[in-house]
Amino acid sequence: MSKELSKNYKWIVLAVLSATYFLAQGSRQIFNAVLPQIKADFAGAGLSDAQLGLVGSMFTLVFGLAIPFGGILADFFSRKWMIVIGTLLFSVGIFTSGMASGVGLLVVAYGIVNAAGQALLPPSNSSLIGQFHVETRATAFSIYQIVFYVGIVVCSCVSGWLSGLGAGGWRKAFFLFGAVSAAWAFALVFFLRDTPQPSLAKAAEGDPAGAPSDRATVREALGAVVRKPSALLLMAGLGFYFYAKYGFNTWIVAYLLRTFPSLSPAAAAFHAVFWFYLGAVVGVFAGGRVSDRFAALRPQVRFDVNVAGLALCVPGLLVSAFAPSAAFCIFGTALLGFATGVYDSNIYASLFEVVKPRYRAAAVGVFGCGGSVIGASGPAVLGWMNAHFSMSAGIASLSAFALAGAAAIGIARIFFFERDKE
After folding, report:
1. Same domain, yes or no, for 103 and 250?
2. Are 273 and 384 part of one and the same domain?
3. 348 with 201, same domain?
4. What dihedral angle (degrees, nearest 10) is formed by the CA atoms of 116, 153, 140, 296?
5. Nearest-CA neighbor of 320 among 240, 245, 239, 375?
6. What is the pLDDT confidence band of residue 265, given thresholds at 50, 70 and 90?
7. Among 97, 186, 243, 413, which is most exposed with the fewest C-beta within 10 angstroms?
8. Are residues 138 and 256 in the same domain?
């Protein structure tokens, strides 16, 4: 590939993968946005909130368990075809979810097939962007992250609007985004080149520095995490964070509609995501700026930012849970979004402080898998609490998990960081 072609193609890669990420992340939100209408449509079957929560929990669990395999497949097979297959697989899961007549098919289609397809995307997407964007890497990943937020907001709002059109309107959201994603999977065949990994290309040219044996295995990465108390406590913190975040995001639209019945499904879907992710954008920039400024002199500042972000989740959750009006609840959602953005800004940067560079890529998969498994039960438990206590109590209970996450990372920061840092 010529230098000029490579220079232009890197932006094509970013645009194509950002569009893929838009559909993948946006499609994840359909279930959350239309959950109240699914519950109403299945009322005759006696579907409980706990059963609906199981759908979200299954997605998180399968995604977390599958993503390390997505990394392995990306290393040893074509990243292009992993992206194509992953997109086609999650599109089938999304489209089939619209055919569900009970919770069983939703668990299989949305919670398993959709999650497995989406787990194939992040390793290949990030690897290709990192390969083509060297001098422009920070800019590229910033654009990629912004598209992630936009996808969530747009797909949630469209799904909320469709669900408000009458009985069965929620199915149209799954059919629409499933069909669009399937069409995009076929378009990817033409837009993406089958680009080899840099290490594999060097190995083919006889460069031993690029030989596959030089890569860290998942087993080595697992050892790098398990042997470091700081890394294990960071993973525990991530799990508690996922429990709170996924529980909140799954039920916030239903909570708004039940607590403030004057809101329409479209308005509830909009307010549930727009203000949350607007706050998250501000939080990401604030947390990243602070940590980058002081990290050279004080490496543990990344742990401090993690603790601050999780601690700030507490007031956001409590305000949302006990707000006397929709406006106060929306303010709490925005505050929670800001707090999650602060935490998100240093999730992996903190891990990299205590894991050797050789193991970092594979360790991310182990780290994300462990965090997802720990936090997967959040949506299901919150659904159970809705029936046995109240939705307000369920959302408020998430603050205990945010505090537990802050405590876990604080312990790592105080007692183990100096010993574990790399």
Report:
1. no
2. yes
3. no
4. -90
5. 245
6. confident
7. 186
8. no
Buried residues in 225-258 as b, exposed as e (16+ CB within 10 A): beebbbbbbbbbbbbbbbbbbbbbbbbbbbbbbb
Cα Rg, the chain, nearest whole Å = 21
Read off φ and ψ for residue 192, nearest 5 degrees: -100, 140
Q: What is the pLDDT of residues 276-285, one digit of tens each?
A: 989 988 988 8
Residues 36 and 148 in one domain: yes
Q: What is the pLDDT of residues 305-329, one digit of tens each?
A: 999 999 999 999 999 999 999 999 9
Q: Give the C-alpha separation, 306 to 107, whole Å.
A: 33
* Res 198: pLDDT: 63
When pLDDT is cut at 50, 70 and 90, the band that residue 73 belongs to is: confident
Look up the pTM and report it: 0.83
- Nearest C-alpha neighbor of 186 from the set 110, 71, 83: 83
Q: What is the pLDDT of residue 287?
A: 85
Please state which of the ranges 63-67, 262-266, 292-296 shows the lowest mean pLDDT. 292-296
pLDDT tens digits, residue range 180-237? 999 999 999 988 887 776 654 454 444 433 444 455 566 776 777 778 899 899 999 9
- Cβ partners under 8 Å of residue 221, min gap 6: 359, 361, 362, 363, 365, 366
d(CA 152, CA 148): 6
Angstrom CA distances, 340 to 99, 214, 260, 313, stand at: 34, 36, 25, 7
**Domain tally for the chain?**
2
Q: Count helices and strands (H / E) in the chain.
A: 19, 0
Give the three-state DSSP class for 44.
helix
Are 204 and 237 found together in one domain? no
**Model pLDDT, residue 205:** 45
* DSSP state at residue 77: S
CA 332 to chain centre: 21
Q: Do residues 117 and 48 both lie within one domain?
A: yes
| Interaxial angle between packed helices 3-41 and 49-76, expressed in degrees from 0 to 180 and rounded to the nearest 10 | 160
CA atoms within 13 A on the CB side of 162: 23
Give how far Cα 101 sits from Cα of 13, 34, 45, 105, 411, Å: 39, 15, 9, 7, 47
- Identify the helix (H) or strand (E) that includes residue 399: helix 391-411
**Dist. CA 208–CA 193, nearest whole Å:** 25
